[in-house]
Amino acid sequence: MDINSKLSNNTAVILVSHGSTLPYAEDVFSEIKEKFIKKTGIATEIGYMKVSEPTIAGAVEILKEEVDDLDKIIALPVFLAPGIHTNIDIPLLLGLNPLEVDPRCPDGNYPPEHYLSTAGDVDFDGEIELLSSIGPKDELLDIINKRISEALAKSELKDAKTGILLVSHGSRLNYNKEFATELYNKFEKTCDLPSSFGFMELCGPSIPESINKLVDENDLERLVVVPVFIAPGMHTTHDIPHILGLLEEHEHSHSHDHGHDHSHDLTPVEFDGEILYPEPIKADDILIEILISMVEEKL
């Protein structure tokens, strides 16, 4: 698919990501970027909110060097659900107005050590168009079903009574729950197996609550737990596997500098059957097509 012909030669794309102290996310987003460029021919760079490089401001500088007379940047948050990051942090980091009042700092005065205070300013005189998050698109169901099929192909059981659990992070705000609920409602209509969804933290139902209910009501022998995350990270490689009883020992407490400190409740579930835990979305070709279609919609 080549959409470069529909764009001005002076246009570029920033794929915006959160950033991580672990290498998994950077590896995944590098692959996403390379696939996106290969399919579109558009000058594209990743811009990380924090921790990783290049920063959003740094991505702008890279694209200014790459594209002669750059006059427009399309910023695409590679986030599944909207939230504080997509509605407040990313607009501010791009030098745009936030889409809502920040519940963390309603007056807009962030502490000096906050990443919104320490981030470099974007130096760009052209137009920056910020797109929305991905949202519960139907195409995500194709990725979920692919991950389920991949997991079942590795199962040690045959003809076991199987259930499906979709797992998301969770948020104190409604955005993530609304996304996960709508996506699951779509999935449930297409799935012939008993299914449910659960959140890792901050809202319910929790993963253990959902598993217990699903298992009790359906007498399951096998469970496929699908992480509805884009890239692997601490949550997908440690927190959720520990909750599922796939890791023997794990304690993870951390501080988020976007407004809350917390320790995860990682009490493992009690399930005697087989638990299959496939990879998250990663740089799946379907995801790349979703991102391309989001840019095309703005052309």
Commentary on this structure:
It is a single chain. The chain has 299 residues and is α/β, with parallel strands linked by helices. It has two domains: 4-133, Rossmann fold (3-Layer(aba) Sandwich), CATH 3.40.50.1400; 139-276, Rossmann fold. It has nine helices and ten strands. The protein has helices at residues 23-40, 56-66, 84-93, 115-118, 139-153, 174-190, 207-218, 234-243, 285-296; strands at 11-17, 44-48, 72-77, 127-130, 162-168, 195-199, 222-227, 253-256, 260-263, 274-276. The longest helix is centred in the N-terminal third of the chain and has 18 residues, at 23-40. The chain starts with 10 loop residues before the first strand and ends with a helix.
Q: How many E strands?
A: 10
Strand order of the largest sheet: 2-1-3-4
Under the CATH scheme, which class of the largest domain? Alpha Beta
Strand content: 15-25%
Q: What's the CATH architecture name of the largest domain?
A: 3-Layer(aba) Sandwich
Q: How many helices in DSSP terms?
A: 9
Secondary-structure element order, N to C? EHEHEHHEHEHEHEHEEEH
Which features characterize this protein?
Rossmann fold, 2 domains, 36% helix, globular, alpha/beta, single chain, 299 residues, four-stranded parallel sheet, 10 strands
Short overview:
The chain has helices at 23-40, 56-66, 84-93, 115-118, 139-153, 174-190, 207-218, 234-243, 285-296, and strands spanning 11-17, 44-48, 72-77, 127-130, 162-168, 195-199, 222-227, 253-256, 260-263, 274-276. It is α/β, with parallel strands linked by helices. The strands form 3 sheets. It has a 4-stranded parallel sheet with strand order 2-1-3-4, sandwiched between helices.
